[in-house]
Design a protein that fits this description.
The protein has 17 helices and 20 strands. It is of the alpha/beta class and about 475 residues long.
Amino acid sequence: MRPKLRFLDQELLDQIIAEAVHILCTLGVDVHNDEVLSLLADSGAEVDMQAHHVIFQERHIQQALSTVPKDFKLYDVRGRETHHFIDDKVHFTPGSAAVNYLDYDTQTARQPTTADYVDYVKVTSRLKYIAAQSTAFVPADVHEQIADSYRLFLNLLYGEKPVVTGAFTVDSFTVMKNLQLAVRGSDNELRDKPLTIFSCCPTSPLKWSDVTSQNVIDCARSNIPIELIAMPLSGFIAPVTLTGTLIQHTAESLSGIVLSQIANPGAPVLYGGSPAIFDVRYEMPPMGAVESMMIACGYAEIGKHLGLPTQAYTALSDAKLLDAQAGLETSMGATMAALTGINSISGPGLFDYENCFCMEKLIVDHEICGMTKRMIDGIEPKEDFPSIPIMQELLKERHLLIADHSRKYLRDEHYFPGPTLTRANRERWLNEGASTIGERAHAEALRHLEEYKPSHLPDGNKQELIDVMTAEAKRFGQDDLPDRQD
C-alpha cells in the first residue's frame, strides 16, 4: 500500500475552489498584455483595456478545466519518454534561477559562471533520481538579455534530460523555441515529444505581467507545457491563514489555466506554485517552513481534485551552508510532497530562499530523492506468505544473508545510498578519513564530472544549437560566447 498525506477534506476542498471562482468572477485579475486581454474579451469576459483588468464568468473557468489535459509526457533530447505526469507518479528536478553559487573552496556565495553551469549539467545528467534538468542558476558572464536562453542552450548541449526553464522576456521565447527545434527538427516533432516545461508566474495578488502572460499563450500555441507558479506570501501579499492563502493561490492558478486554454484548448499545464508564509521577524519568505510545505501540499490536493498534474517547489532549504538545517528542511519537504503525490517536485540543490545553488547540496539531495522514492513504494509482500519456510531456514542457518529469498528481493526492498551518506561504524569511518558529508558530496561531484559522457545528440544538432545561441548573443553586442572549458 502506498502511503498518503492529506490536509484537506472534501468539504474544505470544495469551499476553497468555490471561493477562488467567486473571486475571479467578482474581483477579477489584472492582465498587463493587450493581446491577452483581447483574447479574453473575444471569449466574452468583462475586460477593461484601460485598466488592464478582466473579470471572468464561471463558464470560462469550467470550459478551461474541461480542455486542459489530465496528464502529459516529457521526452529527452533523444526522444525517449522520461516523465508521465499522471496520478501520483513522482519526479524530482533541481530548483531554478538562483543568482548565486556556493563555492566549495571558500564556502561563500558568488556569482555563477558558464563553467559552473556546464559542471552542473554534467553532474545532473548522471543522477538517477533527478529526472529532469532545470535552468538552475544564472551565469553572470553573459549579457543579461540572453541569460534565460543561454541556460537552456547549455542544458541541451551537454545534457540529455528534459529541461524545466522559463523566459525572462517576451522576445526570449522565440530563440528558446528555436533551440528546441534545433534538437527536435520540426514543430510537429516538438509538439509530439515535448522537451521542456516553462515556468509561468502570476504576480500576487491577482496579476499577470506582460511577459508572463505572453509566455503562457506562446507556450500554449506551440503546445509547450507550462507550470503555473503562483507565489502568494501568507500574511504579506496573501491572507495570513493557510486556508486564505490557498484560496488566493487557487484563484491565481485558475486564471492561468483560462489564459492557456483560451490560447489553445488542450495545451498541457502543471498545477504548481512556490507560495510561502512570510516571517515578519526577518521580513523573508521561508520556503523551509513547515507551513510553506503544508500550503504546497494543500494546493497540490486542490490540483488533483481538479484532475490536473501537479508541481511544487518544496525540496529545498533556507539554510546558507550544507548543514543540518539544509538536510532537515529539504528532506521534510521532499517527503511531504512525495506522500502527497506531487508529480514534479522542484528544489534539489537550492537554498537561501531559492537564491543560491550548491553542487554538493544537489548530491546530498539526490540521496534524499532516492530514499523518498523508496518510501512511497510502500510495504508490499514478496513471497512472504506463508512465512514458515523462511523462518525454518533462518532457524536452521542462523542467518538469511545468502538465502534465495534475500538475494531475489534485496535490491527491491533495501535502498543503498551512495558514498555521500555514511553507514559505517565509527571505527571504520575514522579509518576511512573521518570525512564530513560536504567532503563526501564534493568527492562524488568530482567523480561524476570525471565519468561524464557527452550527450548523444548528433554533432550537427549541437552545431545548430551553437549557431542559434551565437546569433542571439550578437544581437546584444556579445560577439563570442564564454569559454565552456570542454
